[in-house]
Design goal:
Blueprint: H1 2-43, E1 50-51, E2 54-57, E3 63-71, E4 79-91, E5 96-108, H2 114-119, H3 122-125, E6 134-143, E7 148-157, E8 161-170, H4 173-181, H5 183-188, H6 191-197, E9 201-211, H7 214-223, H8 234-254, H9 263-274, E10 280-285, E11 291-292, H10 293-301, H11 305-315, E12 317-320
Antiparallel strand pairs: 1-3, 2-3, 3-4, 4-5, 5-6, 6-7, 7-8, 8-9, 9-10, 9-11, 10-12
C-alpha cells in the first residue's frame, strides 16, 4: 500500500514538472516570437501600423495572432482586420530573410472581403451581394548577399476562386530597401522607384486561378441571363458559343503577331476557361535568360511591333488549364 502511494506521488510530481516545463517552454516561445515580430515590424517601419489582440505560441514552432489590424500609412482611415494569422516561419536581421504566414478572415474597413471592392460594379452584375472573408498564405525569401528572392502568395476567396502568384526575381535588394527606407522621397520623386526597378530581373512569374464559383456566373451573364438562377435558351447558348469560337479563332490569328510561340495551346486554354469547360487557368513566364524588367517595359512601350514581339518571345510564355 505504501509502495502504491509512493508511485502515485511520483507520477503526480512528474506530471506537475512536465506541465510546468511545457507551459514554461511555451511562454519562452511566445516571448521569442513576439521579439521576432516586433523586430520585423521595426525593420519594415510598420511598427505603428500593425496591432493584434492576443498571441499564442508553442514549442512546436508555430505562432498564432488573433484580431489583427493593419492600418495604411498614407491613409489611416483605410485598414484591414484579420481574425487569425499563423506564423509558420519568420527570419529577420540576417542576409537570408524568410517569412511564411497564413491568414483567415481578412476584411477591409467596411467589414467586407477586399474582393468585393475589387469586383466593383461587376459584383452586383454577377450576383455577389456579399462575400465570405478572405483567406490566404504569403511565403517569401530574400537573400541580400546573393540578391535573389522568391515569393509565393495564395489568396483564397470562397464563392469566387483561388489565386496563386509565384515570383522569382534577382537584383531586387535595391528596390526593397528603397521602398522600405525612402517612402517620403518616393512620394515627391517617383523616378527613384524607376531607378530601383532598373536592375530587377525576373526568373519566373506564374499566375494561376482556380475557379470556385466565378466563371459559371460570368458565363450566364455573357449568355444574357441572371448570374445565379438564370437559365439560357438554346438560342442564347448557341450565340454565346459562336462568339467564343470567333474569339478563339481571332486569338490564333493574332497571337503569332504578338510573339506567342504556341497560339494553339494558349488560345485553346483561354477559351476552355472562358466557357467554364476548365476550372483552372495557369499562366507561366519562365524567361531564359532571366528578363530585365525595365528592358521589357521599354520594349513594349515604344510601340515598335518588332520590339513587342521580341519582348513577348523572351517571356517563354505558357498558358494551360
Amino acid at each position: 500500500m505504501a509502495g502504491t502511494k509512493k508511485f502515485t506521488l511520483a507520477v503526480g510530481t512528474i506530471a506537475v514538472v512536465a506541465a510546468a516545463a511545457w507551459f514554461g517552454a511555451n511562454y519562452y516561445a511566445k516571448t521569442q516570437i513576439e521579439e521576432k515580430l516586433n523586430a520585423y515590424l521595426v525593420e519594415n517601419d510598420i511598427q505603428n501600423n500593425v496591432t493584434w489582440g492576443s498571441l499564442d505560441a508553442s514549442i512546436l514552432g508555430n505562432a498564432s495572432l488573433h484580431d489583427v489590424k493593419v492600418v495604411r500609412k498614407d491613409d489611416p482611415a483605410k485598414f484591414f482586420t484579420i481574425k487569425n494569422v499563423t506564423v509558420h516561419d519568420l527570419q529577420t536581421g540576417s542576409d537570408d530573410k524568410k517569412v511564411d504566414f497564413a491568414f483567415s478572415g481578412l476584411a477591409d474597413e467596411t467589414g467586407n472581403s477586399p474582393f468585393r471592392a475589387a469586383l466593383m460594379e461587376k459584383a452586383g452584375q454577377l450576383g455577389y451581394d456579399s462575400l465570405p472573408l478572405l483567406d490566404g498564405r504569403v511565403k517569401g525569401t530574400l537573400n541580400e548577399k546573393q540578391d535573389t528572392s522568391d515569393y509565393d502568395v495564395t489568396l483564397s476567396q470562397p464563392e469566387v476562386g483561388n489565386i496563386n502568384l509565384v515570383l522569382k526575381a534577382d537584383k531586387i535588394v535595391e528596390l526593397v530597401n528603397t521602398v522600405r527606407t525612402r517612402e517620403e522621397e518616393l512620394k515627391s520623386n517617383p523616378l527613384l522607384l524607376i531607378s530601383a526597378l532598373s536592375p530587377v530581373t525576373i526568373r519566373q512569374l506564374n499566375v494561376k486561378f482556380d475557379d470556385a464559383g466565378l466563371m459559371p456566373r460570368v458565363v450566364k451573364v455573357q449568355q444574357g441571363v441572371a448570374p445565379v438562377e438564370g437559365k439560357p435558351t438554346a438560342q442564347q447558348k448557341e450565340a454565346f458559343d459562336a462568339r467564343l469560337a470567333k474569339s478563339e479563332s481571332d486569338c490564333r490569328q493574332q497571337a503569332p503577331t504578338l510573339g506567342i510561340a504556341d497560339p494553339e495551346s494558349v488560345c485553346t486554354a483561354v477559351s476552355r476557361f472562358m466557357k467554364n469547360e476548365a476550372k483552372s487557368l495557369n499562366v507561366l513566364a519562365s524567361p531564359n535568360p532571366p528578363l530585365q524588367l525595365m528592358t521589357f517595359v521599354m520594349q513594349t512601350q515604344m510601340g515598335n511591333p518588332q520590339g513587342i514581339i521580341k519582348a513577348v518571345q523572351q517571356l517563354n510564355l505558357k498558358v494551360t488549364n
